[in-house]
Amino acid sequence: MAAPGEASTKLLRFLYFVGAGVICTKAINTYRDYEHKKEASAAVAAAEAAVTAAAAGDPAPASIAAAKP
After folding, report:
1. d(CA 53, CA 55)
2. Would the CA dihedral through 19, 21, 27, 33 be positive or negative?
3. Rounded to 5 degrees, what are φ and ψ at 58?
4. 39 close to 45: Cβ distance less than 8 angstroms
5. Is residue 7 within 8 Å of 1, Cβ to Cβ?
6. Which of 56, 37, 2 is nearest to 48 (CA)?
7. Tens-digit pLDDT profile for residues 33-60
């Protein structure tokens, strides 16, 4: 048994386990946010490129492939 005033080893192990879970969850969510922002910025860049190509009068690559017999 633990001496009076000292925390039990089971309680400390449980708190370490919960703390590790919180840290891992935070890391996973941060990584997911990073990936989501990266995909969103790539989609915005692709949309801007499509708008620029349409404004310049250049046919899109898909329409070029479809136009070839």
Report:
1. 5
2. negative
3. -80, 135
4. no
5. no
6. 56
7. 999 999 999 999 988 888 888 777 655 5
Query: Token pair 């000292």 is at which residue?
Result: 6
Sole residue written with tokens 């046919």: 59
Task: Supply the pTM of this predicted model.
Answer: 0.58
Question: Using an 8 Å Cβ cutoff, are 54 and 47 in contact?
Answer: no
Task: Output b/e per residue, 17-51; b: 16+ Cβ within 10 A.
Answer: eeeeeeeeeeeeeeeeeeeeeeeeeeeeeeeeeee
Question: How far is residue 12's CA from residue 51's CA, in Å, rounded to a whole number?
Answer: 58
Q: Dmax over Cα atoms in the chain, in whole Å?
A: 87
